Amino acid sequence: MAESGSLFHHLECRGCGRTVDPARPVGTCPGCGHTLLAAYALDRLDGRRWLADLPSREASLWRYRELLPVGRTGAVLSLGEGFTPILPIGPIPEAPGILVSVKDDGGLPTGSFKARGMAVAVSRAKELGLSDLYVPSAGNAGIALAAYAARGGLHSRIYLPESTPAPARDACALYGAEVIGVPGTIREAGTVARTREADRGSFDMSTLREPYRVEGKKTMGLEIFEQSQPGPMPDAVLYPTGGGTGLVGMAKAFRELAELGLLERPPRLYAVQPEGCAPVVRALAEGADRVTTWEEPRTVAPGLLVPSPFASERVIESVRSTGGGGMTVTDREILSAMRALGHRHGISASPEAAAPYAALPKLLRRGDVKPGERVLLYNTGTGLAFSVDALERSLRD
Length: 397
Fold this sequence. Notes:
Layout: E1 8-13, E2 19-20, E3 36-40, H1 47-53, E4 86-88, E5 99-104, H2 114-127, E6 132-136, H3 140-152, E7 155-161, H4 166-174, E8 178-182, H5 186-196, E9 203-204, H6 213-228, E10 236-240, H7 245-259, E11 268-274, H8 279-286, H9 312-321, E12 325-329, H10 331-345, H11 351-366, E13 374-379, H12 388-396
Parallel strand pairs: 5-13, 6-7, 6-9, 7-8, 10-11, 10-13, 11-12
Antiparallel strand pairs: 1-2, 1-3, 4-5
Helix pairs in contact: 2-3, 2-6, 3-4, 6-7, 7-9, 10-11, 10-12
């Protein structure tokens, strides 16, 4: 067992089945190029004793240290991330009979759930001796990388679409990152980033192109489980889906909890995407194993403007493994949901984070969720940097 208590053992590829030694930095599978996932020696952990011990630990995601990949406590880079509240919000007129709560990651250190993945991934990068990191981002992931790289004394470069809101660009720069604007969407930002960085000796921190961001996102599922104790888990979790790492992480958490004998049935996971960019929802509806690129993507939610998420096979697999599905919402429904969350419930939500609230009545009408069920909406980030009025004007232009 590592100094931190981590039971991290090896990396494995669900594409070709290859096992990879994690002692050196690695991105995707060296055999087939698919995503690598961390595997743990779970047979060495007494699940019941571990669960009983959790309340005595620090109120951060690092309370789950046995199931995280950082072996040395000195490598942990923390800004106090994790263990965000689950807020019951009472009845929603548009979804009568549903017991609704919100997992609110808007209060995380960099304002979004991206802090989870980057806290773990950058800590692991530091542990492995990496010093120069980059990422293409729609905004929040770049902010998080910049912050945690600064925390660890590492260099970072953030490739952002030129349409990225100014507050996101400014935040990356505030943390000392080099910011590069790229025409187009995050797809073009990724292409430019990987071309420019090819010979620099830097490391790509992109969604599912390295093994450890998903481990930070896994703590979303671990927290939902722990915070539901001793009562039942939610029946369904509605999650705004861009790259989809959170879905992969939560499904992975539920698998590991099941292996520890702590969870019999996971919540159903639902991917929520805007009508103008919904490759995951389309693939789910068509019974496909992977997405096809969404042509002419558009939406007011920059974090959901991902026309072709990498490793979409893992995203689709994660949703289907829980018996979940997908739903699209319009941009106008997203903006109405932002207002409703603020006016009715006192919750600040970004356009991305408001999408699940907009999707709930539609899932109820379709029969995916039913009266009396417990539904958790995942608020992935604060809306304080957004003006609903300005976003509404942009739809009229």
